[in-house]
Amino acid sequence: MNERDGDDDRVHAHVYVSGRVQGVAYRANTREAVRDYDVEGWVRNLDDGRVEAVFEGPRSDVEEMVEWCETGSPAARVEKVEVEYSEPKGASGFRVRW
Predict the structure, then answer these.
(1) How far apart are CA 70 and CA 78, in angstroms?
(2) Which listed residue (10, 27, 29, 50) is catalytic?
(3) 2 catalytic, yes or no?
(4) Which residue has the higher pLDDT, 6 or 17?
(5) How far apart are CA 37 and CA 89, in angstroms?
(6) Region 55-83: what's the mean pLDDT?
(7) Active site residue 45
């Protein structure tokens, strides 16, 4: 086991994305984008028009997904991305929540 096998490098990010992010395949594109990274968690629409997501995994991969959220799907118009980082919470897999 090498140094990177532990949880020291892992992080949890709770993300809120504002703008035109619903009805533009944002969640589906997020699910596709996350496949390029070692990231687990979920994404869902909120009643207030925002998209909420949780990404958990190696810090560099999670940061890449947070950066991806700033653009999102091709039809989206992202106005704001809010993120809070914390310790990993044990997310498993990645899914679109309804």
Answers:
(1) 6
(2) 27
(3) no
(4) 17
(5) 18
(6) 97
(7) yes
